[in-house]
């Protein structure tokens, strides 16, 4: 196994240009599980923790290498709340937002926030230069993203006009070190517009456009309207059965947390 | 009562604590022997299959592979892996390797190779031709007419009814329950099911074997039962017992799963065949699948009371899933009754029926609580229903019915460990104090009286009452040897096995108390069959009560020898001197030190080794008792249950080391909260465990646990060492029923199946039209 340790973005892109099939290593909280328990044996690893450009967090940009520990005090409440629910202190100290995008698990705790705010994902390669993809162009299926060989995730670009009304919640079997059964992030703008995205209830994080449209049209939603919002969200998610939960429970839980996040945002 | 002691009743530091926290290489897996062969397991991929042909040639030819063991080249006698007293009350239904596999994870072959990697690689070169058989993957499937017969072999011994997949069965009747129920004003009947659960010790099973300079076999292993292990391995390998030495070093947790012989027979055979050290360590997944589990149960309980709220009749019908082999099947089954029914001895009419059923699923074994945990859930939730029916507070119902000092239960004589039990009069019972102290600390009256919450998150409180035992009467045995050194210190040699429980420390405290020295003057050496006297091992809450008594007796004999020597030195009567502060003191105040006494015994006149060996075979098993209180918050929309507060008030007699006793209860309650809320094996339709690791099988972490408040109430057991009873298991029995009762108090919904996962709670609430 060859391990390359670039010290700048330039070096990282060079390394990837030389080894387009290389495996990227950031915090290692997903990769090392695969190596230790699932027999994954990458030939070339590019380790990214020494690349300073990936550690930036400013002006609506969050570098791919920013850890969950740092994000717990990020200026975006929805992202900070999500960061606090990731794994354990050890995992938060190592794991990164870029790792969530790279692994592209529908259960990635940071992804509902990115989907709710409509984040762009910035990627770069020696051959293709920089490009920005909308979150739903980047996340294309369970554990699948549209990163090309030789490409690196630089970070995410967030809209600059986000409101402070951002809420995140997840349902799991215990309080920490748990992969969510369902998760959601909701953002409510001053004009009443609501965006909601849900995790673990579809092949990728997904938005609930009918629910969003219904509730965004309502400047002062009543409890009945909030309940209807939850019901629509439950209709729009696309969960599956697995060892953590049945689809029926996931659908129900998604509706409950969606309604509760709305109530929190209205409070 | 404990204020009369100097060392006992003090929270001394663990004698092995420093070595453990500084990371000394003290565990079985830390031994690093040259030229060791590493073992890897080929486990069955099928739940039920016959091995038509097995070709290990490819694996054996791989360079670096020393040996491949299969059913074709290993001893074929049947035995039980259960490390119990001889003769074991578990059926002899297992072979080292068999030509039939009975669950996904059963042993097919083991490779011994130069490295762990090579050993695993060689596994893929073993070709096995299986004739896959229909499998019985549930209790109902195994009991159905025409079900596949799991143990159809002719040479098994001790199976109750192999053609019907029954490993064991029990029927105990006292009085006439059907007639008695007709005389009751309130009768409640409930059926509960419990799940497969895993002990999850930090250290998985690990064994290293080698030949000593004289060609004797040494097994250096993570076991709770070194002497049973020596006996069982000797029988399997047809070796004289004296050719085997079993050493138990420090253990990283057992909880019952290491009361088994799972690795040692194979390690031993590899070492005997090759002359080389062998090492086998289960992976975490193997620990889940191929080690042992908690037997799942389906239990129907019927309880009836008369107008005065006094129980009149109790029926319990327990169906146990023992998995592919009958390890601990009969004894766990009988403990389901014997560790619950005596608690309510006011009921004159009792019936316990039980069946232990083979299935093609993982194997049940000993697990902290040992049947008492599984049966407490239906019994204590049934009593909660009965209290409501009678209009009584649940605590009040227990007050009217619990056993007390000077009382007995017919169950003590009727139900033992695989045979009839031993009659017993309870001599210490502080249940009233446990109920009072627990209620007060918990705020029971206030919390119970709160109006039911109506929002999405509803709080509720529940309680339950529990007993366990202190060893197995007339079966268990502990022995202790104490020998004196010429600096006034002592060696305490015990076969009892400290698994991290702290038993070395408390046994040292008992010796120090009798001999009038500080704990540091006692050098404790435990669990080495070459050097320590016999002990049945660490199980059945036996060590404090049984081995503790043996230590006390040995220390009293040594004390007597010291008195005699010192009396000569002080020119007085042996009966007149006192031991204390490391000295022997005459009535007039003159004294000699213990160092002077032993120096005289070694080098002066009338020389001899001051020392003694004493044994204890307990004549009874005084139960510890516990009142358990839980407060929960139930999110009725998501089904999530959070435990907000937990109080366990325990009567364990004299706590020899209060902090460690509290630690035992805290750990057991945490263990029980996991069992109640999150822990369960999930299976594929083919019977393979889906969550055989600690990321998918959820044990509770710190954030999932409430404050666990342990109260050790004042109590003194006259038959125990310094008034002590045992405490290791009882705590685990409380959470499932207390939490279930609290969920009912919060929501009005009864849960009859553990664990109470969000989804299961949500479904129960939805069925009741809530949330």
Question: Could you please describe the fold and organization of this structure?
Answer:
The complex is a heterodimer of chains A (267) and B (771). Chain A is 36% helix and 22% strand. Chain A has helices spanning 9-18, 31-37, 68-71, 77-84, 89-94, 97-103, 111-117, 135-138, 209-216, 223-236, 247-266, and strands at residues 2-4, 23-25, 44-47, 57-58, 61-63, 120-125, 129-134, 139-141, 144-145, 152-157, 166-171, 182-188, 194-199, 206-207. Chain A is α+β, with helices and mostly antiparallel strands and 267 residues long. Chain A has a domain at 165-266: CO dehydrogenase flavoprotein, C-terminal domain (Enolase-like, domain 1, 2-Layer Sandwich). Chain B has 771 residues and is α+β, with helices and mostly antiparallel strands. In chain B, 27% of the residues lie in helices and 23% in strands. Chain B has 20 helices and 28 strands. In chain B, helix 6 crosses helix 7, helix 9 (329-338) runs parallel beside helix 10 (372-390) and helix 18 (658-677) packs across helix 19 (735-747). Chain B starts with 16 loop residues before the first helix and ends with a helix. In chain B, 60% of the residues are buried. The chains are: A alpha+beta (267), B alpha+beta (771). Chain A binds chain B through residues 33, 37, 88, 171, 173-179, 181, 243-246, 249, 252-253, 256-257, 260, and chain B through 456, 637-640, 677-678, 682, 690-691, 693, 695-696, 698, 700-704, 757-759, 762-763.
